[in-house]
Specification:
This protein is of the alpha+beta class. The chain has three domains: 82 residues, Beta-Lactamase, CATH 3.30.450; 102 residues, Beta-Lactamase; 75 residues. The strands form two sheets. Strands 5-4-8-7-6 form a five-stranded antiparallel beta sheet, with helices on both faces. α5 runs antiparallel to α6.
């Protein structure tokens, strides 16, 4: 018996099968030959079987052919399994791609993937619409990215692109002019990697932060206004009040009986007013510095 082959020339003469229902029953198996179906990993999938209703022998060539057929069956099964695995991986990859694309397409930020040779590999709809609306340019895959970068940003873009290719992640803010409109941007340059971990290009993101900058400017204006109010309260109001307090103190020390009560009341009122002004100045200063 060859390795991997199991042959029973006559089941009626083999005590293991003489009373087997497959031999005595309707199947009437009088001859059996089987070749194991074993993968390259040593996993036994079963057997490729040949049966007959009459006892017989397999010659050497027939045995070899049965062994070859069993290997072909294993190859076909492994190939079919590999196809299923690849199909599953492809479908998973496609699903992830759809999710990722949907995420980028729904983003309000401009997303761009640039190859090592500065060719456009991907851009989202937000960026495409912006370039068409503000600059009258239709973006195309494979085109040089510098065709779409303004002269006032080429140097910065090229420098940060090169830094990102070396593995560095860069984030900064800057303002650019687009169609006579100044827009504040937050820029991000990050290295893009393939499955093996090699840098294949640069992932670029630009987010419009003009409203945030406007809000910050308004906050700064409010702070300066509060500073002016505090200064006015401190000097323009408290200065004259200090003079009044000084005069009241002189009158109080003079101990003029006819106006002693009025001087005492005036001093008390002036001191209360001074305390109120001090609190107002402190509150204005606290708001000015965000406390």
């Amino acid at each position: 018996m060859n390795e991997g082959l199991f042959i029973v020339p006559d089941t009626g003469k083999d005590e293991r099968f003489v009373d087997h229902p497959y031999r005595k029953g309707p199947a009437n198996i009088q001859f059996y030959a089987g070749a194991s179906l074993t993968t390259v990993d040593g996993i036994n999938l079963g057997s490729l079987c040949v049966v007959d209703h009459q006892p017989k022998e397999l010659n050497t060539l027939q045995q070899r052919m049965l062994g070859i057929l069993s290997k072909q069956v294993v190859h076909i099964l492994e190939f079919d399994y590999s196809l299923e695995v690849l199909k599953s991986q492809f479908l998973d990859s496609k699903a992830n791609e759809i999710k990722l694309r949907a995420l980028f397409e729904s983003s309000s930020a401009c997303h761009l993937l640039v190859g090592r040779d500065m060719d456009i590999l991907y851009f989202n709809r937000t960026l495409a619409d912006f370039m068409l609306d503000k600059h009258g340019q239709k973006m195309e895959l494979g085109a040089p990215i510098l065709n779409y970068v303004g002269e006032d940003f080429i140097r910065s873009f090229t420098l940060n692109f090169t830094r990102a290719l070396s593995g560095e992640k860069i984030t900064f803010e800057d303002s650019l002019w687009h169609d006579a409109t100044q827009i504040w941007w937050q820029f991000s340059f990050s290295p893009a990697y393939d499955a093996a971990g090699a840098v294949i290009g640069v992932s670029y993101t630009a987010s419009d932060i003009s409203e945030l900058k406007k809000s910050q400017h308004e906050d700064d204006s409010k702070k300066r206004a509060l500073d002016r109010i505090a200064l006015m309260q401190s000097h323009n109001i408290r200065g004259p009040l200090s003079s009044i307090l000084g005069l009241v103190d002189i009158l109080h020390r003079a101990e003029v009986a006819e106006v002693a009560e009025e001087v005492s009341m005036l001093k008390q009122a002036a001191e209360q007013l001074d305390e109120i002004i001090v609190r107002l100045v402190e509150q204005a200063s606290a708001k000015s510095y965000g406390k």
